[in-house]
Amino acid sequence: MNEVPKFMCEGSKGPHVILVQSFLCGVGCGGKFLLDGYQEEETVRAISLWQDGESIKIDGNFGPESRKKAKERYGFDFESACQIVRGVTCFIQPNGEKILWSPQV
Question: Is pLDDT of 38 > 90?
Fold first, then answer.
């Protein structure tokens, strides 16, 4: 299995961002963003709102703590979901590093 990058921070873009956007809509934090695959201001705001409601670190990033909470509380396994969604996503890391990632075929 091709390991999914550890963080998905503001500026990330691609089909795997849509997974997080869909999750946020499903838990009532959809806000004003489109399911467009861009983790920009509105998506970051929705992640932060969700993090606040879950009493986890509010940083607007979908990283390890957020992924763990989403899996434990809602059964949303981001890493597994990423493995079945085709396409390349640019995952921005907290240090600004850009990681181009896609599932192994």
Answer: yes
The two three-digit tokens of residue 31, written as one number: 């806000």
- Here the tokens at position 1 are 């299995």
Which two structure tokens, joined as six digits, stand for 24? 């946020």
Write out pLDDT tens, residues 5-23. 999 999 999 999 999 999 9
Packed helices 64-74 and 41-53: angle between N→C axes, nearest 10 degrees: 60
CB within 8 Å of 25: residues ≥ 6 apart? 35
**Are 94 and 9 a contacting pair, CB within 8 Å?**
yes
- Give the global pTM: 0.94
> 7: which 2 tokens?
């963080």
47's tokens: 């992640």
